[in-house]
Design brief:
Largest sheet: 8 strands, parallel
CATH architecture of the largest domain: Alpha-Beta Barrel
Function: Glucosidase involved in the degradation of cellulosic biomass. Active on lichenan.
Radius of gyration: 20 Å
Distance between the termini: 41 Å
Shape: globular
Number of strands: 10
Protein name: Exo-1,3-beta-glucanase D
CATH superfamily of the largest domain: Glycosidases
CATH topology of the largest domain: TIM Barrel
Number of helices: 13
CATH class of the largest domain: Alpha Beta
Membrane topology: Single-pass type II membrane protein
Subcellular location: Cell membrane
Strand content: 5-15%
Strand order of the largest sheet: 6-5-4-3-10-9-8-7
Keywords: Cell membrane, Cell wall biogenesis/degradation, Glycoprotein, Glycosidase, Hydrolase, Membrane, Signal, Signal-anchor, Transmembrane, Transmembrane helix
């Protein structure tokens, strides 16, 4: 297998993107250059395709429109359960998908995204679960090795479901497994357990000269995950929480009164706990200033490879304001970013199959000034 022919295709897209950018206020890439490494930025996550059997691929026309708009990176989740067996058809599908994205001019973060079954396995038998991740990368590294190192970034394990000491040991093993076949690819890793921005502070970087540390940011969860519908969390019963927000704001007081009138102390307490101090642009900026200091201290590039707001019941103005605040705080502190996600609950387009239904306010929040 050979690396994808991409020069002429990418050149054509670059010309088209240049024409668009020449007449728009979109900034150039805010990717971070540290110690000779470049963190891919201005991206989005694309789950639901190569992390499952039969997942729908995005339409080429949709991807082309997104690339012309100014997006440069796609974080592409893959499922360790599917690749650990080394099935040639599964590996070929992942390789072809990544190759096609590179051919369209996108950098690709190939994210080992564990299934619910693998997360449960880490609880029940962490040694066996770790071995399964290593087996998955042993199979997948053949795919990565055949893709261009300056375009494809393997991410070791999303939200490592274990305590920090165990993760650091496994992280080193995964890195060694990849390095055996991929000496030039930049390795991406995040802190355990939730890859939260607050978990990076006490986490040392890899002993590797070519790496990027990656974190997630969804704070406050009562805002970003309000009306979520996939479990029994009290977040499902929180609605219409604005951003910025503080406990003394009328919408927040009304929400707390409504929850308590319904006897829902759990949800009310969650809102009060998260708003114990106001959530504002300044608070977000402070979080990313801390991340920037970690990056400078360790001379390690950083990226925010998940952040987003669920669109089930939030008002559009608050949603765009939070996204803009996070994106600008990241860029101000030289943190690369990929938004979660393209076209599902947190998404900003209606369908990956259509060039219609793009959310203009979200595009402006992500790509505007």
């Amino acid at each position: 297998m050979t690396s994808p022919p991409r020069v002429s295709r990418r050149h054509a897209l670059a010309l088209a993107a240049g024409a668009l950018l020449a007449t728009s206020p979109l900034p150039r890439s805010a990717a971070l250059a540290t110690a000779g490494a470049l963190a891919p930025s201005r991206g989005f996550n694309l789950p639901g395709w190569l992390d499952r059997d039969g997942g729908p691929a995005p339409a080429t026309a949709t991807l082309e429109k997104l690339r012309r708009a100014g997006f440069e990176t796609i974080r592409l989740p893959v499922n360790g359960d599917l690749v650990s067996a080394g099935n040639p058809a599964t590996l070929r599908r992942i390789q072809n998908g990544a190759r096609d994205l590179v051919g369209l001019g996108f950098s690709v973060v190939l994210d080992m995204h564990p299934s619910g079954e693998l997360v449960a396995a880490f609880r029940n038998d962490p040694e066996a679960a770790g071995a399964q991740v290593l087996q998955a990368w042993t199979a997948l590294r053949v795919v990565v090795a055949d893709l261009p190192a300056d375009w494809v970034y393997p991410e070791l394990l999303n939200e490592p479901p274990m305590e920090r000491p165990a993760w650091l040991a496994l992280r080193d093993q995964i890195a060694a497994t990849l390095r055996a076949s991929c000496p030039l690819h930049t390795l991406v890793w995040g802190p355990a357990r939730f890859q939260g921005i607050w978990e990076i502070a006490d986490t040392p970087p890899l002993a590797d000269d070519n790496q990027i540390a990656a974190v997630h940011y969804y704070a406050p969860m009562a805002f970003t995950h309000q009306c979520e519908n996939w479990d029994a969390s009290p977040l499902a019963r929180i609605a219409n929480l604005p951003f910025p927000a503080s406990k003394d704001m009328a919408p927040v007081s009304q929400l707390l009164s409504k929850l308590r009138a319904a006897g829902d102390e759990e949800a009310a307490n969650l809102v009060e706990d998260e708003l114990s101090a106001p959530w504002t642009e300044a608070r977000i900026a402070a979080d990313f200033a801390d991340l920037g200091r970690w990056s400078a201290t360790h001379d390690c590039p950083v990226m925010l490879n998940e952040f987003g707001v669920l669109n089930f019941c939030v008002d559009a103005v608050s949603r765009a304001a939070w996204v803009r605040a996070v994106r600008k705080a990241a860029e101000t502190n030289h943190v690369a970013w990929t938004y979660w996600e393209l076209d599902q609950g947190f998404g900003f387009i209606r369908s990956r199959q259509s060039v219609e239904g793009f959310d203009g306010s979200m595009l402006a929040a992500l790509l505007g000034s």
